[in-house]
Amino acid sequence: MGATATENGAVVAANVGEAVPVAASPTATGHGFWVASTDGTVTPEGDATMYGDAASLALAAPVVSIATTESGDGYWLLGGDGGVFTFGDARFYGSTGDIRLNQPALQLVGTRTGAGYWFVARDGGVFAFGDAGFYGSTGNLRLNQPVVGMATTPDGRGYWLVARDGGIFSFGDARFYGSTGDTHLQQPIVGMAATRDGKGYWLVARDGGIFTFGDAHFYGSTGSSALPAPVVGMVATGDGGGYWLVLGNGQFRSFGDAATIATTPIPSDGFSLVGQVVAIDPGHDGGNGADPSYIDQPIWNGREYEACDTTGTETDAGYTEHAFNFDVATRLAALLRARGATVVLTRTNDTGVGPCVNVRAAIGNQARADAFVDIHADGGPPGGRGVAVLQPVADGINNAVIGLSDELSVDIRNAFVAGTGEPYSSYDGVNGLQPRDDLAGLNLTTVPKVLIECANMRNATDAALVTNPTWRQEAATSLASGLSQYLIGFP
Ligand SMILES: [Zn+2]
């Protein structure tokens, strides 16, 4: 196949795990596609020829985008860390793989000459390489909603960025033809495509709803029919007389003059979480017990003072809560990263002290997480057992995220009960939900957040479960499923 794979500058360290389809790019004829998955796998469909993939490499970050070269005889893959991989006649013009991006990279777009490319990151940062010109970015603005996609003008002297709410940012000779930034969308925007003459564009929502602006025609949508997977992007045909919607299972929906591309779904344990940031706080820490002066220091939790942290609880046999929390968090982080999410952990080992609970909240806020979950197990009455999800109560600081946190708590509770068989707590909350106004982690959050008490470590039945690694994996899988339901509407 003559494939070459180069990732330049990036530290190639850890394998990202299983394959989840994240993006697709068409062949020159429009009768085939290459589908890219998070683990670097490329799957050719229709008349697409295989030029190689990155599946055998130990990737530092999941693959998030694929773009066909002008000739159609090659493609680039983009990693979430800004690393660029070249295949076929695609050439390497540079990457950000060796610098730390503020927010993950999302999408790569080649220039018309094939001698350069841009890519865009979640904060709207635009990086131009080869003969691609830089015309501005939103990387230095604080956006209400993250950027989800990019399209370029016909002469390549400008581009649009689109945010999750359908807000449009125009740069260079790209003109503004309207946006959905002021309307309340049923489903978030996930991508865009420009018309052939650059005098209009389409936006596509996660459910396949299409919004047209300028001279973009409406050729149909899937907005009213149930899809087997969320839409992850759209591609316009060469003459602009149609478009494909790309689904998160590697399938396509064709409209207008877009050729039908029949594919079988790519098996996976979930759908793309590219562009989503999840914060995870494994409660307590392994060294807390040895440093009471640190963890006993008072911190302001938004309503009152509380201790910086505690040691947590343990089972009668001595299996500690901090070890349980860290183990489940580590398993959950791996599952989410395999699906392309960016995961931020408040601690990365189980031997340190702290950080204090207010600092843990700040870590998720600063990451501008789309969802934040605190993982704990309870030290409740030995006669009671079950799961409880603790919800924030409005205190002025967290007001804007109360409604979303309530949605998150229900999605997490439902997935956890379904996936682990754990009953609702018999002593904490109602139907597994308990509002709490006395915890820094919930009081100080500015992102959607919940705290889950997975089980009661002081109860013999629950103690046997939390001590079992198989159950902990089920717990992590359930949490990933609940987070995914909340983030993309699919478990
Ligand atoms: Zn705890």
Q: Could you explain how this protein is built, in words?
A:
With 491 residues, the chain is α+β, with helices and mostly antiparallel strands. The chain has two domains: 21-256, YVTN repeat-like/Quinoprotein amine dehydrogenase (Methylamine Dehydrogenase, Chain H), CATH 2.130.10; 277-488, 3-Layer(aba) Sandwich (Aminopeptidase). It has seven helices and 26 strands. It has a six-stranded mixed beta sheet, sandwiched between helices. Strand 8 and strand 9 (126-130) form a beta hairpin. Helix 2 packs across helix 7 and helix 4 packs antiparallel against helix 7 (469-488). The site of zinc ion has 5 residues, from loops.
Task: Give a topology summary.
Blueprint: E1 21-26, E2 32-37, E3 42-46, E4 63-68, E5 74-79, E6 84-88, E7 105-110, E8 116-121, E9 126-130, E10 147-152, E11 158-163, E12 168-172, E13 189-194, E14 200-205, E15 210-214, E16 231-236, E17 242-247, E18 252-256, E19 277-282, H1 292-295, E20 298-300, E21 305-307, H2 321-338, E22 342-345, H3 357-366, E23 371-378, E24 388-392, H4 402-420, E25 433-436, H5 440-443, E26 449-456, H6 460-466, H7 469-488
Parallel strand pairs: 19-22, 19-23, 23-26, 24-25
Antiparallel strand pairs: 1-2, 2-3, 4-5, 5-6, 7-8, 8-9, 10-11, 11-12, 13-14, 14-15, 16-17, 17-18, 20-21, 24-26
